[in-house]
Fold this sequence. Notes:
Layout: H1 3-16, H2 18-26, E1 36-40, H3 45-53, E2 62-65, E3 69-74, H4 84-91, H5 95-105, E4 120-124, E5 129-134, E6 145-153, E7 166-169, E8 176-179, E9 185-190, E10 197-199, E11 208-217, E12 233-234, H6 241-261
Antiparallel strand pairs: 1-9, 2-3, 3-4, 3-5, 4-11, 5-10, 5-12, 6-9, 6-11, 7-8, 7-10
Amino acid sequence: MENIEINNLIAQRLKESRQKLSQDFSKRNPLINTRFFILDNVLPQDIVLEVFQNFPNKDTFLFRDTFRERKYTFAKLNRLKNPLPGQVTDSFQSQQVIDEIKEITKMQDLEGDPSLYAGGLSRMDKSHFLNPHIDNSHDADRERYRRLNLLFYVTPNIEEKDGGNFELWDKKVKKPLKIPSKFNRLVVMETNKTSWHSVDSVQSEISRCCVSNYYFSSSSPYPAGELYYHVTSFTGRPEQSMQRIYGRVDNFLRQGVSTVLGISRGKQLSRKTLVK
């Protein structure tokens, strides 16, 4: 299947649901402050199943295992034997899809990131998790603000009881809104200084696979163009008091190093071959 066909399918699915998704995104949730929308049945099921079946072997991924997270990540999509996972990933970076997301979110200056800085493919197996965090505020060159996180889930037959559920939190990270990582589901959430989110621990032998993309803009998401910068910042879950203390120290140190040296962590892991 050609990229343009996948682009058309995703864009058309967004377009036909545009009004509802825009309402969902603009609606304030009483539990959390982060705006988001959910779109199910994004692509024909056979395409999504083929994406899942052609995720790379876990030995291909970078394995992250810290108090912050335990998961596999991979962004060098040009190295894949089967092109479909890369094609679907890149379709979310197509201007056609970006334009539909602009209409839904009313963010008119959105831009894609074909380098996939902090994006690409991720896999989480049993006992894997992602603790509550806010994403790095900028792109790899620290020139644009990170505005939207797009998460497309491709694991068939996954249920809430399997774990690996996406979570959005209130500003104090006390109560989560749980969103199951359902097959063929797209979750789009805004990213800012208080958009705390996480993935609860995978409880079964299932592999929770996700295609991740980010959109950026040159303008700050805050009124009057407020300037700010922060690294990806983690904390513990409400019952993890020690991780919360350690997280504050860890965030402070990494923020200091990044600010002084002007570096972007993980930049070397992004895809070097850009999509034209």
